[in-house]
Amino acid sequence: MTPLEFFLAGTMSAATVFLLAALGELVAEKSGMLNLGVEGMMAISAAVGFVVTYQSGSHIIGFIVAGAAGIGVSMVFALVSITFLANQVATGLAVGILGLGLSALIGKKHESLTVTAPDPIQIPVLSDIPLIGPVLFQQNIVVYLAIVIAILISFCLNKTRLGLAIRACGENPKAAEALSYSVLKIRYGAVAFGGLMAGFAGAYASTIYTPLWADGMIAGRGWIAVALVVFGTWKTGRIFLGAYLFGMVSLGELVVQSFGVALPSQLLSAMPFIVTIVVLAIISSDRARLRLHAPYALGETYDGSEPK
Question: Considering the entire predicted model, what is its pTM?
Answer without folding.
Answer: 0.93
